[in-house]
What we know:
Helices cover 73% and strands 8% of the residues. The longest helix is centred in the middle third of the chain and has 51 residues, at 40-90. It starts with a helix and ends in a 13-residue tail after the last helix. By secondary structure, it is mostly helical. It contains two helices and two strands; from the N terminus they run H-E-E-H. The protein has a domain at 51-91. Helix 1 (2-25) runs antiparallel to helix 2.
Amino acid sequence: MKVLNGLAFLMVLLVAAVTWALYALEPGLLLGTPWGQVHLSFLLVGAFGLGLAVMGLYVLTGWVNAQATLSKRNRELRQVRSELEALKKQHPEETPVIPDRLP
């Protein structure tokens, strides 16, 4: 995780450096948008932010799916254990008992 966190931090620094360089070195990079002329660096930051938001939604969806799967697995495991205990109670003679370890 430390490597991924470091890589993400470096990517954010790289985007910030490129954005600053574009804005400082090329002030004439204006693009026409429906909201008027916008500098290319602002569009770059906006696109990067939208990408982060979409990635966050994918991560959130994966986490929710993993939690649902784990919950379902734990529920099934509890059900199987309760069924096993019920079978042990129905057939106590089949439960092995070690002579020196009486209950």
